[in-house]
Amino acid sequence: MEPTFRIGTDGCGSCSPPSAQADPQVLLPLPRVRAATTVDADGYGRDGLPVLGDDNSIATTQVYLDAEALPPAPVRHTGPQAETNTQLLYLGGGAWCLNSALRQEQLYGGRILRDTFEDIQAGRQPADPALAQAMQTHGFVTAAGGHPESFHRSLMRQEDAKTEMEVSFTLLRILLTDVCNLSCSYCKVIPNVLAPQAEPTDADRLAEVIQFFFANSEVERPKIIHITGGEPTLFFHQVQHIVETAERAARPGENFWFVIGTNATLIRERQAAFLAEHDVKCIVSMDGPADVHDALRRNHGGRGSWRMVDAGVRQLKKAGAEVSLSMVLGQHNLDRSEEIIEWFLDTYQPTGLGVNFMKPPTPDQKDFDQLVDPDRYADRMYGIHQAFRDRGLFLELVYRKLQPFVQQRYRFHDCGAAGGTNLNVDAKGNVGPCKSFLVMDRLAMRQLDVDAYRSTVVDKWRKRSPIYYTHCDGCQARGMCGNGCAYDAMVHTGDEMAIDLRSCQYTRRFNRLFIDDLFQQVRPQGAISDTWWHRPSRTERQLLFGEVSARPRTLSYSIGHQTLD
């Protein structure tokens, strides 16, 4: 048997030492017991996650170490049988969907779809032989004597092999400073910084990290240098240094672009002119008009910041800089989100829009009063996408989930940190895969050593994928999930290698919304005939995007989550 390790709930799971076990699987915690001040009648906390009992028990999930550890499923030699991770879903109105979660494949139909699949499951002659053949052709069922888990195992082998690949960075995020001129209630960077320092990242260290980033990336592969903080424009001379240093260090044909994340309160004509001249894309944090924005985004004196943010955005637009807006969705703006986004589009004409799911600001604020339920978040976000997709509005998180569904590509990781493509450097000059962990001085390295990065991240965090987790067996959204955020997993379980249950929940909801939306694109007029069935074409699937597309070298692109490039 292969050796295994058990990941505990107190400390860095990726640093846990190996120990000999009989079972070739890793055990990970599901949500540990937690206190919540607000619990609904069904036992859920304010963040939409279940509040467990008080018996101090911890549920676990198993993680297969590699493809060979996946146990074989029983094989039927007398006829076809369903592939693993295939579900029959009832859509209502006499309509059904056969969903292959790993292949991102759907078959829609009336009662004949249900009956044919159930006949195959029971070993009977199928009600519709042509439909049964289509199920086999497109991977919903295996032929007699086939192994139902073989496609699952092939995906695992594909991911197993990546540990031997060279690191190829696509994102350099520079956390330029530990300080900010605002004091936003939900900020999860500043409150987590250990031993904050007043000075920004040293100029020589920045140059060294930029060289390292380019040296360990592919010239033609799209990549981003993202300048953020704290508030990076507090040290605009260092922003200029980063831009000019990277422009000199870039190799011929280097496919990269600059992005700055800013609150825009310090943007004046000079700063806007520099950013526009060097084509630095600007992501400005704004939660809505003044009454909404100022509720949680205030300065250190407690005064709202909207007026200064608005002035900064207008200055950037006047200079010709590309601007996107980043909105955090919480209790303060959830119910007005469509109205706010319409106002954003009419007022600022942003290239894209980040509508971010609010997370606990610190690990001890799991019951933060602005958190929203994951299902409500998904419903609201996809409703916004449907309302604005024909206007080409790029909603980063919706696109990130919708892309693998539409393109039928398995998403192994939701974050480039787990995929081994993200490099972060903080104000102290430390580097690491994840900004949230880096500011807490976790998974932080001083030496610029690609082998150390690979052994710290690639070899371990690649297992943060639903393809390995038994918790994900049978989940209809398994192929588009990627297991969310390691920071959120750590907040809710104490272990970054565990399941990110909030992402798990809203991803499942997104998946059902996508399945329902695709059905509306392909269904016939009127009542669903018992004998109707249909497999959506690639063109029909593409309708879910509308006019939205990811465009490199613009802000209609995912920053740190583009794992399907």
TrEMBL record:
What is this protein identified as?
Radical SAM core domain-containing protein
Region named Disordered: 1-20
Q: What is the top-level taxon of the source organism?
A: Bacteria
Classification from the root reads:
Bacteria, Bacillati, Actinomycetota, Actinomycetes, Kitasatosporales
Cross-referenced Pfam families, in alphabetical order?
Radical_SAM
Q: Does the keyword Iron apply?
A: yes
Similarity annotation? Belongs to the radical SAM superfamily. Anaerobic sulfatase-maturating enzyme family.
Q: Which UniProt keywords apply?
A: 4Fe-4S, Iron, Iron-sulfur, Metal-binding, S-adenosyl-L-methionine
Q: Which residues form the Radical SAM core domain?
A: 164-391
Residue ranges that the Swiss-Prot or TrEMBL entry lists as coiled coil: none
Gene source species: Kitasatospora arboriphila
